[in-house]
Design brief:
Blueprint: H1 5-37, H2 41-49, H3 58-76, H4 81-102, H5 107-126, H6 130-150, H7 155-169, H8 171-174, H9 184-196, H10 202-215, H11 219-232, H12 237-249, H13 253-270, H14 275-291, H15 295-306, H16 318-333
């Protein structure tokens, strides 16, 4: 087939534009991701907003826009952002479907579809829609499995599969009676394979590994992973929460209180109205003071949580924290 000269020029220019844009976009996305982990959300969003969404790049950009909204949702504790996350993740899924419509074996499109579904399942769990979360996880598992079958070097695919595998191992913690089958050893093999590669979600994989170690009572390993990530992002509140919770689970009460103090200052500075994050932090402080045998200090924190009971309908998970604080007070009064 002989193409007209003008068509050849347009095709050549188009291919050059896409090939030139890919490293530029990748660099912009890397900067946005790094800014997100540094909790500079406005700058991260502005960086992504300047990125052009071409056909091959639309799923990547759309995925990270949704992921940034989710980071802010959990960090701020503002439930109104849940709707924004679901809308932006809908757009990410649509971008992946459009790519897969014309390129059904695009491993990265399958990957991003699966990771978006994994994030949606996580958010559904946070919203306490547990059965919906499990159903969404199943969809994520299929897409991620397809992605690594097409390209076994996709580190982020192994991270996603490891997270799902570990949830299945501990399914009854999240939705009683599901009886899902999972392998703890397989989850660790998958997360190791993820961390051996070069994925966009290396820090998320690190947090997942630390969480797994904490849940399995391997506290020194969990602390080591948290501290490694916090050396790069010292104010990252996800890392600080995980480190705090690890110290609490390990019975390192004073260390847990020290990190809880850092968290409270950080949350109050950046999100002074965040009763979700602060009430959770106060619950940890209550337990740590109790572990030290200082019941009066523990009760003071319990009472601070109970004082926010009138906000239970507006603040995610606050009803659970208030109930636990009240239960602790009743136990002390016996």
């Amino acid at each position: 087939m002989r193409w007209p000269d003008g068509a050849r020029v347009r095709v050549a220019v188009g291919l050059f534009a896409v090939l030139f844009a890919m490293p530029v976009v990748a660099g912009s996305v890397h900067r946005a991701v790094s800014l997100g982990y540094a909790q500079q959300y406005d700058s991260a969003w502005a960086t992504l907003a300047r990125v052009s969404e071409r056909d091959t790049l639309a799923p990547l950009v759309a995925f990270w826009r949704a992921a940034l909204v989710q980071m802010l949702l959990y960090d701020s504790g503002d439930p109104a952002l849940a709707d924004s996350f679901h809308r932006t993740s809908d757009r990410a899924l649509a971008a992946c479907r459009e790519r897969l419509r014309t390129h059904p074996d695009d491993a990265r499109a399958h990957l991003l579809f699966g990771l978006t579904q994994l994030n949606r399942a996580n958010c559904q769990g946070w919203q306490r829609s547990r059965l919906r979360a499990v159903m969404t996880l199943n969809s994520a598992s299929r897409s991620l499995g397809r992605a690594v079958a097409l390209d076994s070097t996709l580190a982020d695919g192994w991270f996603g599969l490891a997270a799902i595998e570990y949830v299945r191992v501990n399914a009854d913690r999240y939705a009683l009676g599901l009886g899902l089958l999972g392998s703890r050893k397989r989850a660790y093999r998958m997360i190791a394979r993820s961390l051996d590669g070069e994925g966009w979600l290396a820090n998320a994989a690190g947090f997942m590994l630390a969480y797994m170690h904490k849940e399995d009572g391997e506290f020194e390993q969990a602390v080591e992973v948290c501290e490694r990530i916090l050396r790069q992002y010292p104010e990252n509140r996800t890392g600080l929460r995980l480190l705090r919770d690890t110290y609490l689970a390990a019975g390192r009460w004073e260390d847990a209180l020290q990190v809880a103090g850092r968290l409270d200052s950080s949350i109050t500075r950046d999100f002074p109205g965040n009763r979700y994050g602060r009430s959770e932090n106060r619950l940890v402080a209550m337990k740590a003071w109790d572990g030290l045998g200082l019941q009066d200090s523990a009760l003071a924190y319990a009472d601070r949580i109970i004082a926010w009971s009138r906000y239970e309908r507006q603040v995610p998970w606050l009803d659970r924290y208030v109930a636990e604080a009240r239960q602790y007070r009743r136990r002390c009064e016996r």
